[in-house]
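User: Teach me something about this protein's shape.
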Amino acid sequence: LPYDLTRLQADANRIYGYSVKDTLAVMQSLYETHKVLTYPRTDSQYLSSDLAETLPERVKACAIPAFRKICAKLSGNTFVKSAFYIDNSKVSDHHAIIPTEQSPDLTSMNDKERKIYELVVKRFLAALMPPFEYTENRITLMLDGEAFNAKGGKIKNLGFREVFSDMNDDDNTTEIPVFTKSELLNNVSFGKTSGKTKPPAYFTEATLLIAMENPSSFLDGADKSLAKTLDVTGGIGTVATRADIMDKLFNNFVIEKRGNEIFTTQKGRQLLKLVPKEMISPALTAVWEQRLERIAKNNESPEGFITEMKEYTHRIIRDIKGSGASYAHENLTRERCPECGKFMLAVNSKKGRLLICQDRDCGYRQNVSIITNARCPNCHKRMELSGGGEKKFFLCVCGHKESEEQFEKRVKEKGNQMNRRDVEAYIKNREREDTGNKAFAAAFAKLKGE
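Assistant: First, the predicted structure itself:
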């Protein structure tokens, strides 16, 4: 199916590492400025029937070099209103994200815009392509009364998978021998594997986004009607607000990224212990959604609901204040804020490490290290730039370390082997840095032993 915003943000994070906030901003640019994609803030993956007659022009518009061959195959096709991706009942405020009838000017797009545009076009063209077809063989081998099963197949027609040329074949396209019934096999070798079950993986921005849309599995045996309500209403937040919700959690330092995975911070874990248990369960969202639905049907007074919400807010604040629980900064440094003199906190942001004043009214913050677009020569991950003045150096999570001077020398010597866009982005980042900030160097000197 074509993309809705949530699945597009999830794929952009999984494939390219883009944050959900960045993807939404790029989509807004492709919609408003370039006018090559339709309205992005949609939760539908389907098209309305009135769009069927516009599909040939949309295919023609996205026939850029990367998709010219596919578009030529689809050229002249008649797209019927009974296609699986056309369903008026599944289109809410807006249909799925698809290309417009306007051809893109790729030279006017930056790297992120081109990549997001191509993701949308791939999904759009894939929906219009024929099915992927293959033959499948299933075999059962019997040994001492135990059945061992295997299956495999052979591709007959790539269909929509031709659009995804980098997709690996899965088990149903792995060829296996053809046997006859009751055939006896000799000299068969066996092997045994062993292992341990792993705990659930940490969330990434992509998987957290999907969990926010479908939080029913986190209800811990609550009323089934609550799970149904969350499914109908779209979970926590909306396609338009989930990026902001996630961004606010990062900016308030209650969650942080380590690599591509998301962890709660010490501040976040203390917060979870302070608030009432019902506030950290999706069940509360479901209950409020049910109340709002009753209000919409004139079965409940909106004034009564608002009054109850005010009383609830006052009560939980009063309970938290009177609970006796205390909050302690475990990330306090001995560096004093130059504005108010209070000790500062060491925190990790999406862009690097910071020192921030513990007094939120003061709001002072300064960079300690910055995550750059410069890539590690060993593992090719983005490196962190630390230090100040002539003592700046790059550090990678894999352990690679080099001075800024060494990095620039490597860029100069092997420039033809490096990603030009990464180097350009690094240079732009460097130009934005406040290299004259002496506090930056002083703060790093005190913290580098962490």
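Now, about its shape. The first strand starts at residue 133 and ends at 143. Confidence is low (pLDDT under 50) at residues 431-441. If you'd like, I can walk through any region in more detail.
User: That's plenty for now, thanks!
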